[in-house]
């Protein structure tokens, strides 16, 4: 169901996983998940639908996704990235779907649970799976993975404004977050782990290392 202007829509099958920034496309699960035992992640088919019509925005075949890792739409809504997808041969890779064609790109491999996000240059920002505690970041440019010009970090996440939160993990497993604007100017230096940007990019949720508390930081 969707609630809008005080009115609840009729019910639709599936569990919602993600919504485009302009609210015109929604990702829903299709059918029941399988797997999730003996160290294997869950897998589920998905449908990518228009809203409010709930018609197919594009059709997918052959790739199933882990519903525990929500998809991330590009700013213009033309692409959606799934943090963990599988086509039967790879247990978990980053998958980008072009909404106008339904074409799915298997992009790269990085540790599960690390954030992926879109940069203003339409590149997908990735952490390097085999990097040390602090290592080079990477970007998918639409056809291949290339080195990022961003400073080395353990991982990073970008906002809709182009600001980037760079998270570094020390040897004692403590974390520090540096926030840079799109021009590389340092905006904030914070103790803890950047986990979530607000849709307008004005606020950042930073989780404490004890995993028991968080702060919401306004970003200039």
Structural class estimated from helices and strands: mainly beta
Rg, alpha carbons: 18 Å
The rounded distance between the terminal residues' Cα atoms is 36 Å
Nearest-integer average pLDDT: 88
Helix proportion of residues, in percent? Answer: under 10%
**Can you tell me the overall shape?**
globular
Which parts are unreliable, with pLDDT below 50 for 5 consecutive residues or more? none
- Could you give the order of the helices and strands? EEEEEEEEEEEEEEEEEEEEEE
How many helices? The count is 0
Strand content: over 45%
Total number of strands: 22
Oligomer: single chain
Largest sheet: 5 strands, antiparallel
Kindly describe this structure:
The protein has 220 residues and is mainly beta. It has strands spanning 3-4, 7-8, 16-19, 25-35, 42-50, 56-58, 64-65, 72-73, 79-86, 93-98, 104-108, 117-118, 124-127, 137-140, 145-147, 155-158, 164-169, 175-180, 186-191, 193-197, 203-207, 214-218. The strands form six sheets. Strands 7, 8, 9, 10 and 11 form a five-stranded antiparallel beta sheet that branches. The chain has a four-stranded antiparallel beta sheet with strand order 3-4-5-6, with no helix packed on it. It has a four-stranded antiparallel beta sheet with strand order 12-13-14-15, with no helix packed on it. The mean pLDDT is 88.
Topology of this protein?
Layout: E1 3-4, E2 7-8, E3 16-19, E4 25-35, E5 42-50, E6 56-58, E7 64-65, E8 72-73, E9 79-86, E10 93-98, E11 104-108, E12 117-118, E13 124-127, E14 137-140, E15 145-147, E16 155-158, E17 164-169, E18 175-180, E19 186-191, E20 193-197, E21 203-207, E22 214-218
Antiparallel strand pairs: 1-2, 3-4, 4-5, 5-6, 7-9, 8-9, 9-10, 10-11, 12-13, 13-14, 14-15, 16-17, 17-18, 18-19, 20-21, 21-22
């Amino acid at each position: 169901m969707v609630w809008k202007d005080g009115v609840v829509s009729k019910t639709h099958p599936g569990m919602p996983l993600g919504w485009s920034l302009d609210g015109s496309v929604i990702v829903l699960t299709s059918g029941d998940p399988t797997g999730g035992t003996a160290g294997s992640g869950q897998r589920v088919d998905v449908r990518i639908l228009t809203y409010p019509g709930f018609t197919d925005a594009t059709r997918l075949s052959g790739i199933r996704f882990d519903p525990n890792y929500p998809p991330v739409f590009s700013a213009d809504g033309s692409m959606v990235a799934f943090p963990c997808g599988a086509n039967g041969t790879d247990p978990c890779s980053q998958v980008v779907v072009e909404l106008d064609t339904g074409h799915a790109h298997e992009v790269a491999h990085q540790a599960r649970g690390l954030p992926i996000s879109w940069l203003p240059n339409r590149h997908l920002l990735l952490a390097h799976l085999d990097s040390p505690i602090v290592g080079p970041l990477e970007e998918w440019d639409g056809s291949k993975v290339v080195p990022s010009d961003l400073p080395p970090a353990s991982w990073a996440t970008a906002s809709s404004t182009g600001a980037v939160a760079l998270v570094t993990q020390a040897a004692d497993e403590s974390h520090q977050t540096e926030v840079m604007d799109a021009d590389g100017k340092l905006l904030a230096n914070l103790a803890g782990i950047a986990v979530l940007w607000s849709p307008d990019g004005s606020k950042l949720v930073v989780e404490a290392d004890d995993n028991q508390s968080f702060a919401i930081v306004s970003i200039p």
